[in-house]
Amino acid sequence: MIEGGNLTDAFESLLQAHPEWPETTRGAVRDLAWSTLRDYGRQSVVLRHLLHSPPPVFIEALLLVAVFRLAQRPEQAHTIVDQAVQAAAAEMPGMKGMVNAVLRNALRQAASWPAWIAGDEAARYAHPQWWIDRLRRAHPDAWEAALASGNQRPPMALRVNRRRATVDEMVGMLEAASLSCRRIGDDALLLERPVAVANVPGFAEGRVSVQDAGAQRAAALLGAQAGERVLDACAAPGGKTAHMLERADVDLLALEMDPRRAGRIHSNLERLGLAAKVLVADCRDLPSWWDGRPFDRILADVPCSASGVVRRHPDIKWLRREDDIGRFAAQQAEILDALWQTLAPGGTMLYVTCSVFDEENRLQIERFRRRHGDAEQLPIDQHPDCQLLPTAEHDGFYFALLRKVR
């Protein structure tokens, strides 16, 4: 992340380099990396008070992890410092003395950490300042709770494949495996604590999928009916595609630009016993994929800042720049304008983002409606649209339902 890389890609490369690691080691490394980055704003401020100049990237990353562990487990300070020094000695022997000195100084000044963090709003909320400012403007009554949720470990929800199991059957299977859960939606079960997917009963047999409870709202809101022609325009990895097929026998086309990610759609559908036509194409380039037959329903789950799911991808909040939001908004507008041409009169389109920023959500829809006089916005739960901010139950999502009136 310090060098601008993607956390998930880096972790996958690490696993490929260490195939001998048992699942417990893999999980521990992942948890430490993700947790450190969720808290990055705080550690970076602490290190800013302790370092005179930036160290090499490896040493900076090592110190960030060590400072995070010291804050979380002060009773293990001696072990944490010793392990950090050993890691430095293994990779950059000439820096082990510096690592030892910085961490011991950090311990001596531990009483000052809260004041250092409190004096810097970005550190206090562990988000970039521009992010805090945007969220505060868009959600003046809920911005602090949303930021706090974004710093927590994400919940784990399951979606029951109603073609292969009932919710009650899955509750029984989970309880038999000593996994407590509760129902929070039509097909959603929220686990009391996350577990490895391999330990979820019924997953391999296609009875359930792992999907955030907020994301599961999309299929119900679009409301596709049996026999309808449906487009999932930005479909990978295929969770919403599968959910629509689980709910109704529809003629579904799933588009995805990335061939590798399109492969994940096929894999997910195969596991669940479902079928759809999957094409690798840019949904904006109509001649490359559209046969001219209009769709009754369109799911436009567009690329966005992913600001509503940063607890799952904590590098995002530090890699994003404020001007990225405008670029995402421009891309979203292009997608909406293109897809609208393929929607049948009387048909509905569900616009979805996993963003909490107005420019990608409410303002995007307002601009779209000004451009398209044949677009009617349908209410969601007696509101013009639906903005879900991240909570202990679900991630952050935005939904707007549009009907083509002529």
What do these coordinates show?
Helix 3 packs across helix 4 and helix 5 packs antiparallel against helix 6. The longest helix has 19 residues. Strands 5, 6, 7, 8, 9, 10, 11 and 12 form an eight-stranded mixed beta sheet that branches. This protein is α/β, with parallel strands linked by helices and 406 residues long. It has three domains: 87 residues, Orthogonal Bundle (N-utilizing Substance Protein B Homolog, Chain A); 54 residues, Alpha-Beta Plaits (2-Layer Sandwich); 188 residues, Rossmann fold (3-Layer(aba) Sandwich).
How are the SSEs placed, and which strands pair?
Blueprint (H helix, E strand, L loop, with lengths): L6 H11 L5 H16 L1 H11 L6 H16 L4 H15 L4 H13 L4 H6 L2 H5 L3 H10 L4 H8 L6 E4 L6 H10 L4 E3 L4 E4 L16 E3 L6 H6 L6 E4 L6 H9 L3 E6 L2 H14 L4 E4 L14 E7 L14 H4 L2 H19 L2 E11 L8 H10 L3 E4 L7 E3 L8 E8 L2
Parallel strand pairs: 5-6, 5-8, 6-7, 8-9
Antiparallel strand pairs: 1-3, 1-4, 2-3, 9-12, 10-12, 11-12
User: How much helicity do the residues have?
Assistant: 40-55%
The helix/strand class is alpha/beta
The SSE string, one letter per element, is HHHHHHHHHHEHEEEHEHEHEEHHEHEEE
CATH homologous superfamily caption of the largest domain: Vaccinia Virus protein VP39
Question: How do you describe this structure in short?
Answer:
With 406 residues, the chain is of the alpha/beta class. Helices cover 45% and strands 15% of the residues.
